[in-house]
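User: Can you write out an input/output pair for a complex, sequences first and structure second?

Assistant: Here is one pair. Inputs:
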Amino acid sequence: MTDPQYSGRCGPGRFITALSAAIVVSLVGWIAPAHGSNAPTLDSDLIEAQNQRELKAPGDQTSRTARRGDQPSGPMQESGDLRASGAGLDQTGSPRDRNVGQRKLSETSSSVAALFWLFALMVVGGSIFVITRRNLISAVMGMVGTFFAIAVVYAMLYAHFLAAIQVLVYAGAIMVLFVFVIMILNKPEAEPWSASGLLGKVVVLGALAYLLARLFMVLWGVEPLPGSLLAISATSDTTTPAAPGAIVDGADWGSTRGVGRALFTSYLFPFEAVSLVLLIAVVGAVAVARPHERPPVHIPEGVPGGPKSRQSSRS
Amino acid sequence: MVSSIYSQITYGHFLVLAGVLFGIGLAGVILRRNALIVMMSIELMLNAANMTILTFARMHGDMRGHALAFIVIAVAAAEAAVGLAIVVAVYRARGHADVDRLSTLRH
């Protein structure tokens, strides 16, 4: 391509995509056995965080200090305290698995945290990369890398099936669609940024900063539900009534079977409605993107199909 | 205490990550003029919403959040198809896909 706008400018996007794909492929083999065999390592982290937040969670300062003073278990970082609540929350239940989980906690908590920070950095950096590119192909490549990193974050949340769907649908199908359209609309833009002038920049950045500040204020205030961090079966049995679609088996959580059971029992109608939405979207996309037809030529009277003959045949 | 923020990953981390992703997508929608970048930013915002749904599903131990996220992904695919078709039609009709210069539905 002779256009300098599109010659060799998509290096960082390809680098991000290749790096993220390589990291994802290498990490899936490392995370998956640890999740399938024994107590998950991320959950050990979450149990410990739950212990800390449970002590910090309730109410105002006075009740917090009173509660902390009443706690007989001493420092909250102590392993005995952790083991006690971990035993209550453990989903596997057998002592051997708990021991494995305890042993893994000291080994892998920092590495799981490092993984989270790595992929959080990839998500944030990739999305910033996307919205700052002038070259659209480069933006799409950064988008694919961002979607891979988001898929890893989904896998950290034990949504394995949705992580796979994320890679297949987003990084595969939707991004290919974007690439096709970008190839059709191959035209560099003159002025990529919308905010022009000092006043516009100030207003836009101020509005964004305000929105982000409110978002952070809301999100930092979210408290995890006490006692329901890990024990899916326990919470589904005791506190939450087990809905027909909810999975009570911890081993199925986030798997294809679990998502399918939820989709085909309690969410069957939305599932079918989504199929209809997709069909209508395909038809609508074809109807909208079809090239404009020429205005209808004048059909002389007397010819079958003309206006006069149609009118006469109707009357 | 500061080190525990970095070493202990809680659900708040995932929620804040989703919030940051949503904010970046919102910045892309507001700041960029190219319709394709705006649509990619919308996809980023949908992903942030999905991440929040999955985090709360894990927090509450309810698999039905995964079904909701699945439906969100399917609807996002439909939205991308229709939106890109509209972008193509607008580009064919006007020769540009600049959202700041689009003010009427017909020309």
